[in-house]
TrEMBL record:
It comes from Neopusillimonas maritima. InterPro entries: Alpha/beta_knot_MTases, RNA_MeTrfase_TrmJ/LasT, SpoU_MeTrfase, tRNA_m1G_MTases_N. GO terms for molecular function: methyltransferase activity. Residues 8-162 form the tRNA/rRNA methyltransferase SpoU type domain. Keywords: Methyltransferase, S-adenosyl-L-methionine, Transferase. This is RNA methyltransferase. It comes from the Bacteria. One of its GO terms (biological process) is methylation. The keyword Methyltransferase applies. Pfam families: SpoU_methylase. Belongs to the class IV-like SAM-binding methyltransferase superfamily. RNA methyltransferase TrmH family.
Length: 276
C-alpha cells in the first residue's frame, strides 16, 4: 500500500502561516502520506520556521522533505489528475464532487493506471484558490460542511482530505500494489524532446500534466496563427479549452496526435504545407 500512498501529493498554494505548514505535514503523516508540496510560500525557509517545526510535532521528516516550487504548474507537472479544494461555487470550472467522491476517484485512478499520480490542491488561508489555479485541475472538490459556517482552517481541510484518501486506498484489492517501480521502466524521447516510458503500452499511458500543459501552449499558439483566437480579446476561450482537455484524461498518444495537429495548423497558416 505504501506505493499507492506515495503517488498522492498534497499541494498548499502560497501558504502564509508557517504553523499551518507544520500542521499539514503532521496531518498527512498520520494518514500514511509523505508528499507535501508548497507553492511560493510567503515565508522564506518556511520548513525551518519555529512555528512550522513545533506544529509538525513528530512529522519533521515530512516537513523537511517538502517540495518547494514557484508556481502551481510546477507542482502539478508530474501528476495525471488534480482536485482543487474550494468551498466557493464557480461559474466556470471543472466538474464538481465532494471529498469522498474525490477519494474514490483517486483510488480508481492510481489502481487502474500504473503511471497515475493524484494531487489535492488547497489555496491560501485568506482567499483560497483563484480561477486560474482551478483551471489547471481536472476536478473541483469540496467538503460538505455546515452551510451556515463552512470555513475550515487549511490544515484541517487537508487532514480531512488525507483521511478520506487513506480510507479509500486502504479498502481496495491488494493486487493494486503489484505495480512496477518507475525505476525499472526505460524512457525514450519523442519528437518534441519530452520523455515518457518506452514500454509497449507507453502510448496508452496517461499523459503527465507537464505534457498536457506543453500541448495546451502549442494549441493556443496554433489557434492564434489561424486567427481563431485573438490574444488581445481571449474572453473565456482558453479556460474552456483547459477544462475540455482536462476532463478527457489524455494519453501520451493522444497528446502527440494533437501536437501534430497543432504543427499542421501553424504550417497551414504560414503557407508551409505542401499541396498534393
Amino acid at each position: 500500500m505504501t506505493i499507492l500512498f506515495s503517488r498522492i501529493r498534497f499541494i498548499m498554494v502560497q501558504p502564509s502561516h508557517p504553523g499551518n505548514v507544520g500542521a499539514a505535514a503532521r496531518a498527512i503523516k498520520t494518514m500514511g502520506f509523505t508528499d507535501l508540496c508548497l507553492v511560493n510560500p510567503e515565508h522564506d525557509n518556511v520548513t525551518r520556521h519555529p512555528d512550522a517545526i513545533a506544529l509538525a510535532s513528530g512529522a519533521g521528516d515530512v516537513l523537511e522533505q517538502a517540495c518547494l516550487v514557484p508556481n502551481l504548474e510546477a507542482a502539478l507537472a508530474p501528476l495525471t489528475m488534480a482536485f482543487a479544494m474550494t468551498a466557493r461555487e464557480r461559474v466556470l470550472g471543472p466538474p464538481v464532487c465532494d471529498i469522498r467522491e474525490a477519494a474514490i476517484l483517486s483510488q480508481s485512478h492510481v489502481s487502474t493506471h500504473p503511471e497515475g499520480r493524484v494531487g489535492i490542491v488547497l489555496g491560501t488561508e485568506r482567499s483560497g484558490l483563484t480561477n486560474e489555479h482551478i483551471a489547471q485541475c481536472q476536478r473541483i472538490c469540496h467538503i460538505p460542511a455546515n452551510p451556515a459556517y463552512s470555513s475550515l482552517n487549511v490544515a484541517q481541510a487537508l487532514q480531512l482530505a488525507a483521511w478520506e484518501l487513506r480510507y479509500a486506498l486502504s479498502n481496495m484489492p491488494c493486487a493494486a500494489e503489484k505495480i512496477d517501480s518507475p525505476a525499472r521502466i526505460n524512457y525514450v524521447q519523442n519528437d518534441h524532446g519530452e520523455t515518457h516510458p518506452a514500454d509497449p503500452e507507453a502510448g496508452d499511458a496517461l499523459a503527465s500534466q507537464a505534457k498536457i500543459n506543453a500541448f495546451l501552449k502549442h494549441w493556443q499558439e496554433a489557434l492564434i496563427q489561424i486567427q481563431f483566437l485573438n490574444p488581445a480579446y481571449p474572453k473565456k476561450l482558453i479556460p474552456r479549452m483547459h477544462h475540455l482537455f482536462g476532463r478527457n484524461q489524455m494519453t501520451n498518444d493522444e497528446v502527440d496526435m494533437m501536437r501534430g495537429v497543432c504543427t499542421a495548423m501553424v504550417k497551414a497558416a504560414n503557407g508551409q504545407l505542401r499541396k498534393n
